[in-house]
Design goal:
Elements (H helix, E strand, L loop, with lengths): L11 E2 L1 H10 L7 E6 L5 E5 H7 L8 H13 L3 E3 L6 H11 L4 E4 L1 E4 L2 E4 L1 H7 L7 E4 L10 H7 L9 E2 L3 E6 L9 E5 H14 L8 E4 L6 H13 L3 E5 L9 H9 L4 E4 L1 H10 L2 H5 L7 E4 L6 H10 L3 E5 L9 E2 L13 E2 L5 E4 L12 E5 L9 E2 L3 H7 E2 L2 E10 L5 E6 L4 E3 L2 E3 L1 H9 L4 E11 L3 E10 L6 H19 L6 E5 L13 H9 L12
Parallel strand pairs: 2-13, 4-10, 5-8, 12-13, 12-14, 14-15, 15-16, 28-29
Antiparallel strand pairs: 1-9, 2-3, 6-7, 10-11, 11-21, 16-17, 17-18, 19-20, 20-23, 22-23, 23-24, 25-26, 27-28
Helix pairs in contact: 1-2, 1-3, 1-8, 4-5, 7-8, 10-12, 14-15
Bound molecules: adenosine-5'-triphosphate (ATP) and magnesium ion (MG).
The site of adenosine-5'-triphosphate (ATP) has 28 residues, from strand 16, strand 23 and strand 24.
GO molecular function, one term: ATP binding
EC number: 6.2.1.1
Pfam family, one: AMP-binding
Length: about 525
């Protein structure tokens, strides 16, 4: 067994060449490649031909981020995207971990219409490092190294550098939901093959269509489906810097309408949020172009699936990770959906559910989800972390860290993270089981469940609930909490331990939108919450 995964070993290729040059010299040359909504209100539209003209230049964030990543790919440099707005220490840590030679940084970020200054943070993060910063200055200030100045001096016809198929394309850190983010390495050949296959086979994109991935470009979903796969396949991709619900939820629906988006790829977090805002928003919009919604990143509760399918378009839940680079489990369009169950291993993926000793479990038994590496988009390695890779890939199997169960027809349901499993007496309950049952109550927007040791009762389940009505008084809250406990027991059957419900206006999240249960646990037990560098709130 090799200690790294590979694809097209020995071949030569280049992802930027395939994303740009190939189309720019084809009948697609004048088709829109990319539509980027900057947070300052500017909308950039570039055709394949124009985009090629600019990729020899390094540029940041939004349009600039897309160009920078492609420009790196073009010359064979490995890009390491770090989401703008991440704290200075986290930035410095990643600069040190990647041993970056150049930092391309924006001096501000637009969030909810406000300009957040980043220059001081970047300067502090790079202090004492021998690391030039190429600035995307958005506030009119001039700095010694300016991206757009460089851009204007570039020759449009710089050829792409052929690289080995297994040459690293990028390092990208995981979301940090369960602990310190891992630097995942993907390569030109495998990443192209794996992501584009699913763009057609799972997300069902057709030539000439427009695809919108709401994920930030600096997370894996943004890398794979905001940038590379749609461009590799000659489609039009939409990018948006600001929040989807700024200044109000209408912004999301307007973007869908304005660009006649055909397929949307988003997250359960956003779908829950749009469900909370209500059906009057989609009812007001013209969504006639939208024919498919993909959901990835977290467990998609049946109620949320039904809402999205009814009010947006047919919704395909799909499971994957930064490490897998592209979808691994999903329900293809030719199969009936079972809301709450993600579906089947996709072509090329072999998935197993294992017990604690590594034995394969039959249908109906909860266990650790493992995959057989060897499908094209599987990570090449973990950057600077061979021990982490060896821990994850053992005896030819990759341990995903999630727990799952398959039914008799082969549909897999994701139950949550192995680290978050709740021990309730003899039972082992995944967080998704409790949270999904909670969200099926009409008073609940979203929920997070944790297990806690209890001095008197052994173990208790505590559920944090974001209620639809935020301002209930104490008495109403107590009644509602009791109702929700009853509802939960009715949905899940007998639970061997006490359940406590508490109300909260929001849940702790990563910047990529995932609920971070370890923060809730730490708050209860006083234990160390671990790495908080990617926390949003
Ligand atoms: P870290 O590995 O640093 O703790 P992370 O696992 O959240 O962070 P990502 O690679 O962004 O980092 O997310 C992958 C994880 O997201 C999966 O392991 C799984 O827990 C969750 N996930 C993704 N898609 C789905 C889905 N469709 N259903 C349930 N969970 C999902
Ligand atoms: Mg993970």
């Amino acid at each position: 067994m090799r200690d790294e995964a590979g694809w097209f070993s020995g071949g030569q290729t280049n992802a930027a060449y395939n994303a740009l040059d190939r189309h720019a010299h084809s009948p697609r040359r004048n088709q829109l490649a990319l539509i980027a909504h900057a947070g300052d209100g500017q909308v950039h539209r570039l055709t394949y031909r124009e985009l090629l003209d600019r990729v020899a230049v390094y540029l940041p964030s939004g349009l600039e981020a897309a160009l920078t990543l492609l420009a790196c790919a073009r010359i064979g440099a490995i890009h390491a995207a770090i989401p703008a707005g991440l704290g200075g220490l986290a930035l410095r840590e990643r600069l040190l971990d990647t041993q970056a030679r150049l930092l391309v940084a924006a001096d501000r970020l637009y969030q909810s219409g406000r300009a957040l200054p980043l220059a001081a943070l970047v300067e502090a993060a790079t202090e004492g490092l021998d690391l030039p910063v190429l600035w995307h200055s958005r506030g009119g200030e001039r700095r010694p190294l300016e991206l757009w100045e460089l851009l204007e001096r570039q020759r449009p016809d710089t050829p792409a550098e052929p690289v080995a198929a297994e040459h690293p394309l990028f390092i990208l850190y995981t979301s940090g939901s369960t602990g310190k983010p891992k630097g995942v390495v993907h390569t030109h050949g495998g990443f192209m093959a794996g992501t584009t296959y699913h763009l057609r086979a799972l997300y069902d994109l057709k030539d000439g269509e427009t695809f919108w991935t709401t994920a930030d470009l600096s997370w894996i979903v943004g890398h794979a489906y905001g940038l590379y796969a749609p461009l590799l396949e000659g489609l039009t991709t939409v990018l948006r810097e600001d929040k989807l619900d700024y200044p109000d939820p209408g912004a999301f629906y307007e973007t869908l309408e304005q660009h006649a988006v055909n397929v949307l790829l988003t997250s359960p977090t956003w779908l829950r949020s749009f469900r909370r805002h209500g059906p009057e928003w989609p009812a007001r919009a013209d969504l006639s172009s939208l024919r498919l919604v993909g959901s990835v990143g977290e467990y998609l509760a049946p109620e949320v699936w039904h809402w999205a399918t009814e009010h947006l378009a047919w919704t395909v839940d799909n499971w994957w990770q930064t490490e897998t680079g592209a979808p691994c489990l999903a329900t293809p369009l030719c199969q009936p959906a079972k809301p709450g169950k993600v579906g089947f291993p996709l072509p090329g993926v072999r998935a197993l559910i294992l017990d604690a000793e590594g034995r394969v479990l039959p249908p109906g038994h909860k266990g650790r989800l493992a995959l057989q590496p060897g499908f094209p988009s599987f990570m090449h390695t973990l950057w600077n972390n061979p021990a982490g890779y060896a821990r994850a890939v053992q005896d030819g199997l990759y341990l995903t860290g999630d727990i799952a169960v398959a039914d008799d027809e082969g549909y897999v349901a994701l139950l949550g993270r192995g680290d978050d499993v709740i021990k309730a007496g003899e039972q082992r309950i995944g967080t998704a089981e409790i949270e999904g049952a909670m969200v099926s109550h009409p008073a609940v927007v979203e929920a997070a469940a944790i297990g806690l040791p209890d001095p008197e009762r052994g173990e208790i389940i505590k559920v944090y609930v974001v209620p639809r009505t935020p301002d209930m008084d104490g008495e109403v809250q107590a009644v509602m909490a009791q109702k929700l406990v009853t509802h939960l027991r009715r949905r899940l059957g007998p639970l061997e331990v006490p359940v406590e419900v508490v109300f909260t206006p929001q849940l702790p999240r990563t910047k990529s939108g995932k609920i971070v249960r370890r923060v809730l646990r730490a708050r209860e037990t006083g234990a160390d919450p671990g790495d908080l560098s990617t926390l949003e709130n």
